[in-house]
Design goal:
Elements (H helix, E strand, L loop, with lengths): L3 E3 L4 H19 L15 E8 L6 H16 L4 E6 L10 H7 L4 E4 L24 H10 L2 H12 L4 E6 L8 E3 L13 E4 L2 H7 L4 E4 L5 H7 L4 E2 L4 H7 L7 E4 L9 E6 H5 L3 H34 L6 E4 L2 H18 L3 H24 L3 H8 L7
Parallel strand pairs: 2-3, 2-4, 7-8, 7-9, 10-12
Antiparallel strand pairs: 1-2, 4-11, 5-11, 6-10
Length: 384
């Protein structure tokens, strides 16, 4: 275990404080008013080693830093996280194993990256769309039974010595980057395409030849012809890869990954060995990172999408056609019919479906028509 602990309060300072308090008590006994002292944290200083699944220049690494900054600030510097980029200790897809074994104390990743162990992992990010968006599925994790189901998967089924928290309900991930404008389902058949998690099954159901790759391997795979098209996540991350240098047709909107979040994995023994104060900061720091991550994403993603459309990038931004979206839903139906034969997988899907029927109903019935309002004030701005 790589946790480092140092005593933060000197013995001599402790004696001095006790003498001061003793004097204050004597004064109180004499009838004088007593001024209450602030509650000073008694937790020791701890440093945890965390590796992400993201490169040093990835926007996701920036978001991981936002989590670290909030944890350290809330702990008054008594809980530190040494954040490392992908590849520093292990590869992007190996961080869960490293945390389980205690090689790392923590990881910043997504559940789709360990979906090969159990396909139900992808249901906690990149699962089926029953009408709920990412914030609503994140609410399912916290309030609809998802948290307990994840514990059952990690602890009881996979026997993993880890626990997880979630941050950043991601905007819908685009269908991705192509070297032509995709206008029909037939154009996708046989195309070599990159995605991860259950999205692999969905896109294979459309006739695509799918390869799972971490973000850092996408551009080399394009250059070698291993893939011809890809999706990763958002305009900021994609443009940092240089996608606009090899493809000029960016298709927005898709059901293959419409509700994902970051997973913050911690070694269970390490976590249980921390003070209750530090445990709470780690858990609720993820909730604090939600706001920071999402706010930063809205600002940066929107700027970068506009930048991609401008010269000299000249990227064509398209809205994915309805026939392709319907085909994705049909593919989800076929995949779920097959995978629901596994009792645990079906248990998670059924839980999400019950949640979505109620929660999405409220949201869809109640939500304003934002497109109507946008068109009213910015007529002709949308590409569809």
């Amino acid at each position: 275990m790589s946790v480092k602990i140092t005593e933060d309060i000197k013995t001599t300072k402790g004696r001095g404080r006790r003498r001061f308090l003793k004097g204050a008590a004597a004064t109180a006994a004499g009838g004088a008013a007593v001024i209450a002292f602030p509650q000073v944290s008694r937790a020791q200083t701890v440093t945890l080693k965390m590796q992400s699944s993201w490169g040093a220049t990835s926007p996701f690494q920036d978001m991981a830093k936002q989590y670290v900054e909030r944890v350290e600030a809330m702990s008054g510097g008594r809980l530190k996280i040494d954040l490392l980029p992908s590849g520093s200790v292990v590869k992007a897809f190996q961080v869960q194993d490293a945390v389980h074994k205690g090689v790392l104390d923590a990881a910043h990743t997504v559940t789709a990256y360990w979906y090969s162990k159990n396909k139900a992992a992808s249901l906690f990010g990149t699962g089926p769309v029953f009408g709920c968006n990412a914030p609503q599925i994140l609410a399912w994790i916290h309030f609809g039974g998802g948290k307990e189901l994840l514990v059952e998967l990690q602890r009881d089924i996979l026997k993993l010595n880890v626990l997880s928290f979630f941050a950043m309900p991601m905007p819908t991930q685009p269908l991705g980057w192509f070297k032509f404008h995709v206008t029909s389902l037939d154009q996708l058949k046989g195309l070599k395409y990159r995605t991860v998690g259950l999205a692999t099954d969905i896109m294979q159901g459309l006739g695509m030849k799918v390869t799972q790759l971490p973000g850092g391997e996408i551009m080399p795979a394009l250059e070698k012809g291993v893939i011809e098209a890809f999706e990763f996540n958002n305009p900021t991350a994609d443009s940092r890869f240089g996608a606009q240098d090899v493809s000029k047709d960016y298709h927005m909107g898709s059901y293959h990954q419409a509700a994902e979040f970051f997973e913050l994995i911690f070694n269970k023994d390490t976590f249980n060995g921390l003070s209750k104060e530090h445990q709470a900061i780690i858990e609720y720091g993820a909730e604090a990172a939600n706001t920071a991550n999402y706010g930063w994403a809205m600002d940066q993603y929107s700027k970068d999408l506009q930048w991609l459309m401008e010269p000299p990038q000249n990227v064509n931004v398209w809205r994915t056609g309805e026939d392709i979206l319907k085909a994705e839903l049909d593919s989800w139906d076929r995949v779920l019919k097959k995978l629901n034969k596994d009792p645990f997988f079906k248990k998670v899907v059924d839980s999400q479906k019950v949640w979505s029927k109620r929660v999405a109903f409220y949201d869809i019935v109640n939500a304003a028509d934002y497109k109507l309002a946008y068109d009213h004030y910015f007529p002709g701005a949308l590409p569809f």
